[in-house]
From TrEMBL:
GO BP of this protein: regulation of DNA-templated transcription
EC number(s) reported in the record: 2.7.13.3
Lineage: Bacteria, Bacillati, Chloroflexota, Ardenticatenia, Ardenticatenales
Record-stated family: In the N-terminal section; belongs to the phytochrome family.
Transmembrane segments: none
Domain Histidine kinase: 605-827
PROSITE patterns referenced in this protein's UniProt entry, alphabetically: HIS_KIN, PAC, PAS
Protein name as catalogued: Circadian input-output histidine kinase CikA
Domain PAC: 236-287, 360-411
Native source organism of the sequence: Ardenticatena maritima
GO molecular function terms listed in the Swiss-Prot or TrEMBL record: histidine phosphotransfer kinase activity; phosphorelay sensor kinase activity
Length: 842
């Protein structure tokens, strides 16, 4: 802003403030601040003789120039610099200081004292501006004094005998006191009595200052002041505290004027007004302004005000700290020059919000002095006058670091997701057809697209492979449509320009080729070329049923994914070249699997043939044992018990072999039943109670309240838990076996967890990897003592996997083991292929 324009606007602001109030002292602080900001002064002091004493505002000079009340007359207490302006009546300068007199009717009434910063002086333009301010202050004071004088003239002209007719003005708003020359009240109106809280009859005969509640000494000093002032200038004006008869304190603004009586006597008329509310409100306002000013000056955020056209009016120091610019460089300039050009449209939208009387909230980039940009979160409130926006007040918060963190996190998240998905595709090493399907699935998943198509091209641009977005199409139609799409559609455009093409509205964009029986007639599309070493291998097109569905983030993501997809295509093409070898390997694998199934079927048949006679042997052994027990033949009883135990053990081995064979042959089924988990646990506890009693261990059951029901193969789950509990009892001496049960949601489904914890001998870590292999055993001494085939854990793991769950184990030698079974709470069908991996926690 040019200096002249700056001075003119400042003078207009000061004039507006002075016109709006009859007491210019109410806006003195604002006038002094404006004068300091525009002239470049470090401090400004305004000394004004309003009430026969000197009042000073602003800066360090206030303490020096504010006279002591008991130093009278007031002129004697003035500092020499201000006294010099009174004598000279002209500007007086000394170094970085300048003193300008304020005169009214060629009479000195005050001084403007300005101090420039160290090692600086005021130029002519600044002093001329200060002279204009001094004249405006004098004119404001003149208007105020004329207002009071009119009241005095009215009373003197309209009431010849005021002492006898004062009651005519009993109900006017001002308090009227008629006093003799000694200050004794001769008469007063009703307003005066009401103001002081007494009756009208109680005032005559009292001294005026004492009626105002002043102590005798202070009352005498005040009346002497009134008399001397009236003799010197013919009027006395003062604002002071008075005390009513009830003890309350009020603030009075009083004016005294001498009145000539017809008999030649001189009386004194005093007009008083209660300005308590105004004075106290001003003090509160000034305190509030000081607090607000301190808040604005020290706020970490930019606080600004600007006109409706975007012209900046005020900026706090945070603007300089955050942008590197000085406030002077931008005050008076349009905010659009400061905002990034790509964000300018946001201000247009913000203005529309402001016209609807809404609070503006938007994020924009502000230009720093060093050429970088500050991300700012702007909140602004419009101020209206007659439905027109006159000014905006707002705050701009620096969110640069937050935006950077968000962008970094978003980029990392998208990159990670992209790499994970593409790595999944390439690591599977499938056929080319499967690779294309997987690539399309990945792209639709990460972008949210509803449909998509993929075309692979040879070096001549001919389509060699295609996956169409439509549901049904024969091979000939696929090639025909793909060739047309590459020739004239958006896919061909992406191939030719070797860049991602985004169409926000396929219904109205001429680049979109309309195909018959297309899956969408309206929506949006994204065409991504798949290139490797500058060679276009193919193109992927993604479709969404809504216009403007894809954004810049999708474009960037698919561009990055396209590179990985190109590698996947290359790998798949290499796989196709080795397809014959893979086919031979598959034939060999099929033969091996067939042999394995034949083995399992043979084992199952043999187990079945063994189980039938064993069942007969066990039945007859049990009958013979009952007869021997009835006869009391202990020798025979021991022999039969050995036979029965051996037969039952052999039957258990046969059953385990049969169960394992069924699982490996893929013929094991899930018998779905529903059972309350608590009922299942009661059954388990009853079953293992004899085992616990026969051992030196204790058993503890810990069950959460929300375990609910299990829907699945109850028999298989019970067999798993019995096997784990019996193993825990078998390998624990004088310890504790704990079964903990809880229910939880893994994000996809409800899961039941059963944890068997023992304090037994533990399992060495080198055995954990093979623990669930058939026939694998660790503690041979214990096994020989208790028996076992090494099939229990293998079958339990297979059963858990058939139900969609698994068993994990952790163990420490000498401290015990923890086996955890996790199965879905609802099992509907069997998982015919179990995981080859072992789930081990070491």
């Amino acid at each position: 802003m040019q200096p002249v324009q700056k001075y003119v606007e400042a003078l207009g602001h000061i004039a507006t403030q002075l016109i709006r109030t009859a007491r210019w002292g109410d806006v003195a602080a604002d006038v002094a601040n404006t004068l300091a900001e525009v002239s470049g002064a470090e401090t400004v002091t305004i000394v004004l003789n309003q009430y026969d004493e000197t009042h000073a505002w602003r800066g360090a000079y206030a303490a020096h120039y504010g006279p002591e009340h008991d130093a009278w007359p007031w002129r004697a207490s003035l500092p020499p610099e201000i006294a010099a302006t009174l004598e000279r009546g002209a500007i007086w300068r000394e170094g970085r200081y300048a003193f300008l007199p304020i005169t009214l009717h060629e009479r000195w009434i005050g001084t403007l004292a300005l101090a420039a910063p160290e090692q600086a002086e005021f130029d002519l333009e600044a002093l001329t501006f200060a002279e204009h301010v001094a004249r405006m202050l004098a004119e404001s004071e003149n208007r105020r004094r004329l207002t009071l004088t009119e009241r005095w003239k009215m009373l003197r002209q309209d009431i010849p005998d005021l002492a006898h007719q004062l009651h005519m003005y009993a109900n006017i708003a001002d308090a009227l006191f008629l006093c003799d020359q000694d200050g004794v009240i001769l008469d007063a109106n009703l307003t005066a009595a009401t103001l002081l809280g007494v009756s009208s009859e109680a005032l005559p005969g009292r001294h005026l200052s004492q009626a105002w509640g002043l102590p005798p000494a202070a009352a005498a000093i005040q009346w002497q002041e009134i008399q001397k002032t009236l003799q010197r200038i013919g009027r006395w004006i003062r604002r002071f505290e008075a005390r009513r008869t009830d003890g309350s304190v009020i603030i009075l603004e009083a004016t005294a004027v001498p009145l000539e009586h017809e008999a030649g006597n001189t009386h004194i008329l005093v007009v008083a007004e209660d300005v308590s509310d105004v004075a106290r409100a001003f003090e509160r306002l000034r305190a509030s302004e000081n607090r607000y000013r301190a808040l604005v000056e020290h706020a970490p955020d930019i606080i600004f005000a600007m006109q409706s056209d975007g012209t900046l009016l005020t900026l706090n120091p945070a603007f300089e700290r955050l942008t590197g610019w000085t406030r002077e460089e931008w005050l008076g300039r349009n905010v659009l020059e400061l905002v990034h050009e790509e964000d300018a449209h946001l201000l247009t939208t913000a203005r529309e919000q402001a016209r609807r009387r809404q609070i503006i909230r938007t994020d924009v980039r502000l230009k720093r002095r060093d050429g970088t940009y500050l991300f700012a979160e702007v909140t602004a409130a419009p101020e209206h006058a007659e439905d027109q926006i006159v000014i905006y007040h707002g705050i701009a918060r620096d969110i640069t670091q937050r935006i950077a963190i968000e962008q970094e996190l978003r980029s990392q998240r998208e990159l990670f997701r992209n790499l994970v998905e593409i790595a999944r595709v390439t690591s599977q090493r499938p056929s080319l057809e499967a690779t294309l399907h997987d690539m399309l699935d990945v792209a639709c998943s990460v972008t949210g697209a509803a449909r998509g198509s993929v075309f692979l091209l040879d070096r001549n641009g001919r389509v060699t492979h295609s996956i169409l977005a439509r549901e049904q199409a024969d091979e000939e139609e696929k090639i025909r449509l793909a060739t047309r799409a590459v020739k004239s559609g958006v896919a061909g455009l992406a191939v030719r320009e070797k860049r991602v093409i985004r169409i926000d509205d396929i219904a109205n964009d001429p680049r979109w080729e309309k195909f018959p029986n297309a899956p969408f007639m309206e929506g949006s599309a994204l065409a991504v070329p798949i290139s490797h070493d500058e060679e276009v291998l193919g193109v992927m097109t993604l479709l969404a049923g809504q216009p403007h569905f894809f954004d810049e983030e999708d474009v960037a993501l698919m561009q990055a994914a396209a590179d990985q997809m190109a590698l996947a295509v290359r790998n798949a093409q290499l796989y196709e070249e080795q397809r014959q070898l893979i086919h031979d390997l598959e034939l060999a694998r099929d033969a091996a699997e067939a042999a394995s199934r034949a083995k399992s079927a043979f084992l199952a048949n043999i187990s079945h043939e063994l189980r039938t006679p064993l069942t007969v042997i066990i039945g007859y052994a049990e009958m013979l044992l009952e007869d021997a027990q009835d006869l009391g033949d202990s020798h025979l009883i021991r022999g039969l018990e050995r036979v029965l135990n051996a037969a039952q053990h052999l039957l258990s081995v046969v059953n385990d072999l049969l169960n394992l064979a069924k699982i490996e042959a893929g013929i094991s089924e899930i018998d779905v039943q529903t059972v309350a988990v608590t009922d299942l646990l009661v059954s388990l506890e009853q079953h293992i109670e004899p085992l616990i009693a026969a051992s030196t261990n204790t058993f503890a059951l810990e069950v959460n309240d929300n375990v609910g029901e299990f829907v699945g193969d109850v028999v298989k789950l019970r067999q798993i838990l019995l096997n784990l509990l019996s193993n825990a009892i078998k390998f624990t001496d004088e310890g504790t076996i704990t079964l903990r049960v809880w229910r939880e949601n893994d994000g996809e489904r409800e899961m039941l967890s059963f944890e068997v914890h023992d304090t037994g001998i533990g399992i060495p870590s080198e055995h954990l990897q093979n623990l669930f292999d058939p026939f694998y055993q660790v503690h041979t001494d214990r096994n020989r003592k208790h028996g076992g085939t090494g099939l229990g854990l293998a079958i339990s793991q297979r059963y858990a996997q058939l139900m969609g769950g698994r068993i994990t184990v952790s163990s420490e030698v000498g401290k015990g083991s923890v086996f955890t079974v996790r199965v879905p709470a609802v099992v509907k069908t069997a998982q015919q292929s179990y995981e080859g991996k072992r789930s081990i926690e070491q």
